[in-house]
TrEMBL record:
Entry keywords, A to Z: Methyltransferase, Transferase
Origin species: Candidatus Syntropharchaeum caldarium
Name the UniProt record assigns to this protein: Tetrahydromethanopterin S-methyltransferase subunit A
Molecular functions (GO terms): methyltransferase activity
Pfam families (UniProt xref): MtrA
UniProt cross-references to InterPro entries, sorted A to Z: MeTrfase_MtrA/MtxA
One GO term of the biological process aspect: methylation
EC number: 2.1.1.-
Length: 223
């Protein structure tokens, strides 16, 4: 049985960044967390990026921040319906927590102001892309959590498991290529409504179940 694939739009990938483009028809992208300054990138992180592309990833690159970085990642993934998995690897960057924030985004979404629900990062805020793109990203991909993994061979095995025709086991995941996502690609660039999201006042609390901003005096109401 032939796996359904689509040709990505000519604008793909719409956002530039610290990534390498691989096989456009691959079902998997790889996000390597950058936990240091971008002028002092360790070779082990570059090796992870290249190992993923060599193994067949559609996109493989580094993510440093929990706001604009995630917005760019979303734009590039929803522009290619063939991408159905996102592998997150590399050491978590404390403070920014981009890896955990991506997981919380897929699990919980954003509130009415664009804050990622459940994230404890410094500024998990996505004001510069449409909600439509965020929601398609959440539906389109499944995350494979390899946070803190620096083993290029393990990342290679994860990538290869994603494009098998028959289900295969990788750690606790059953993986295979499900084919292109059924909805049309969304090809947008970030609008930069807010260029410095870290300067925006963060909500005191964002409830996963009740999407509103809570004051400290209201804590007993939340339970």
């Amino acid at each position: 049985m032939e796996i359904y694939k689509v040709k990505p739009p000519s604008e793909y990938p719409p956002e530039d960044g610290r990534y390498v483009r691989g096989n456009d028809y691959s079902p998997v992208a790889v996000c390597v967390i950058l936990d240091t300054f971008d002028f002092a990138i360790p070779m082990e992180l570059e090796d992870l990026v290249m190992a993923a592309v060599d193994a067949g990833a559609a996109l493989s690159g580094m993510l440093q921040t929990e706001n604009i970085g995630i917005e760019k990642l979303i734009c590039n993934i929803v522009a290619n319906p063939n991408i159905r998995y996102l592998i997150i690897c590399g050491r978590e960057a404390w403070g920014h927590l981009p890896g955990d924030t991506l997981i919380k985004l897929v699990e919980n979404g954003v509130d009415e102001r664009g804050w990622i629900i459940g994230s404890t990062a410094l500024t998990p805020y996505l004001p510069n892309i449409p909600e439509e793109a965020i929601e398609q990203f959440r539906r389109q991909i499944r995350i494979i959590d390899l946070i803190d993994c620096l083993d290029a061979d393990k990342v290679t095995d994860a990538v290869r498991a994603c494009y098998q025709e028959e289900p295969s086991q990788f750690e606790n995941y059953t993986l295979y290529d499900p084919g292109a996502y059924a909805e049309d690609p969304i090809c947008v660039k970030i609008s930069m409504k807010i260029e410095k999201p870290w300067e925006v006042e963060k909500p005191k609390m964002v409830s996963r179940w009740r999407k509103f901003i809570a004051d400290p005096e209201e804590k007993e109401m939340i339970g």
